[in-house]
Write a structure and sequence with these properties.
Layout: E1 2-9, E2 19-26, E3 31-36, H1 42-49, E4 57-62, E5 65-66, E6 75-77, H2 89-93, H3 95-100, H4 105-118, H5 134-146, E7 152-156, H6 164-181, E8 184-188, H7 192-198, E9 201-205, E10 214-217, H8 232-248
Parallel strand pairs: 3-8, 3-9, 6-7, 7-8
Antiparallel strand pairs: 1-2, 1-4, 4-5, 9-10
Helix pairs in contact: 4-5
Amino acid sequence: MLEFDRVSCRYDVEDFDIIDELSFRVEPGSFHCIVGQSGCGKSTIFRLINGLMPLKKGTIRVAGEDIAGRKGYCGYMPQKDLLFPWRTVGENAALPLEIQGGLSKRARREQAEQALALVGLEGWADRMPGELSGGMRQRAAFARTVLTGSELLLLDEPFSALDFLTRLSMQEWLLDLWRRTGKTILFITHDVEEAVFLSTSVLVAESSPIRALREIPVPLGMDRTRHDLARPELVELKESLIDLLRKGGPAL
């Protein structure tokens, strides 16, 4: 689904490559969390994938094709929901369809309502964002991301601003949605326990600049529950991940 082939990039204000000849692959239908030190370049990986930042060299492929010049090959959800407060929830969700064009307003609304129902917001299309809780706003933002039509979804710390219980609920909700849709998901987080609970395998950025992502498989099936995190092998895995991150530099 996704391949980085010796990719490098740097910011104009820096004199070094923040991503340095990085190569890795992601299989279709997998769920990978990316963890690493703050500022190491995790979000830069997403900016490269979605074309918000140019490559210095290398190639990025999605579904086997170079992303250069392409559109609509991935959906992106940043940390903040970024819902437009003057548009209804349904109109916010339908924004990708509006940008793509080719559909009537009625068809866009129908698809938006279906996407909102998928994320548990059936009947909320005519409400305003200010009427939604934090968790509901994130689900509406996810419905908007789904309506890009992309099989590859990039989620950049989407639950970091939520309270503890809402965050746990959203993690369980996202797992269930992944099972039902079969999308390929890349998810950036600073929370090692969140990474272990959600991932088929965790991708660890051990250094900055990022030259490699170490893949750590998670020994859980798709039917996992939060109780599984207390299993000895999962506790050991969490500690191993924390040790890897500490060796790379300052704590998360």
